[in-house]
Amino acid sequence: QVQLVESGGELVQPGGSLRLSCKASGSSFLIYAMGWYRQAPGKQRELVATITSGGSTNYADSVKGRFTISRDGAKNTMYLQMNSLKPEDTAVYYCNADLQPYGQIRRGYWGQGTQVTVSS
Asked: How much is the pLDDT for 56?
């Protein structure tokens, strides 16, 4: 059983910074790619950033230059460094992983989400 657990979300003032973490744990597995998504109240879930096993990254236009995605393969952990936060960044941030547990099919997994609120 594979689990993704996010952490790091909290209330922060505009212009501030936060770092989110997502740790994959459980039985033996191979991670192909990971990503962060977010969902604001009344809106659809949207892509924030992704990172492949080779380290290639992709960002939504709205966060380019402010957010940085990274991962530590040895720890099965992904990070999202968020700088210059804006009120419109307020959302629940979800971790996603494209992975294959040993002996099982490859598919996507989701974490439970962590709330980020940007407000003065």
From this structure: 97
